[in-house]
Design a protein that fits this description.
Largest sheet: 7 strands, mixed
Number of strands: 7
Shape: globular
Number of helices: 7
Distance between the termini: 23 Å
Strand order of the largest sheet: 1-2-7-6-3-4-5
Oligomer: single chain
Radius of gyration: 18 Å
């Protein structure tokens, strides 16, 4: 559970307690809450890897997921980041790099234009170059099927996968993941994840 969900839960508990709601009913309500769709959303398992989806498209949102992951135990993290709009890349390339640096493996997909045209002369390499300044390698893969193949090949080696932004990248790279081993999260296995990114997690080595 992320820091924001913890804080929100505590606020709900306090409010319910103030109005005299039974503590057991409060517990049931919290247990039944599955979180918002595409916000660090658990999708299932594939070959032992935990697959998550998150829609964060601003550096602060990406950083929040990254920080949450650091509180978990895992072997390797693998993130697919699809930058959202050219203007954000122009204004936040350095901040995006800083927010991604804690992931072990980083794939940058094509910038999702949305409503914009590239009048800023920016590219995916702007983020990759900023990451390299910080001593972190990343690769740019344009084709969704190639991203899927790359992740399929590596999935046995990593611990978490996160997907981001464009519905196409949400579906395409994860087609193989949707033949998931199960749809229910195993609470005995430690997990992590992120948005506009894909993120994979393997069980922690004993």
């Amino acid at each position: 559970m992320g820091k924001h969900n913890v804080l929100n839960s505590l606020g709900c508990i306090a409010l319910c307690d103030y109005y005299g709601i039974n503590i057991n009913d409060i517990k049931k309500g919290l247990i039944s809450y599955k979180g918002a769709a595409r916000r660090f959303e658990y999708k299932g398992e594939f070959n032992g890897a935990k697959v998550y989806d998150d829609y964060g498209h601003h550096p602060t949102e990406v950083e929040a997921v990254s920080n949450s992951i650091l509180n978990k135990k895992y072997n390797k993290s693998y993130v697919i980041f699809e930058p959202h709009t050219y203007s954000r890349v122009k204004n936040h390339a350095s901040d995006f790099a800083k927010s991604l640096i804690n992931f072990d493996n980083i794939i940058i997909a094509d910038i999702y234009a949305a409503r914009e045209i590239n009048e800023f002369n920016v590219s995916e390499n702007d983020i990759i170059n900023e990451l390299e300044k910080l001593g972190k390698n990343a690769i740019h893969i344009s084709d969704y099927e190639e991203i899927k193949r790359e992740v399929d090949e590596e999935i046995m080696c990593f611990e978490h996968l996160i997907t981001r932004e464009n519905p196409e990248i949400y579906i395409a790279p994860n087609k193989s993941f949707y033949e998931l081993d199960n749809k229910k999260e195993n609470e005995d296995i430690k997990i992590l994840k992120y948005t506009s990114l894909p993120f994979i997690k393997m069980p922690v080595a004993q």
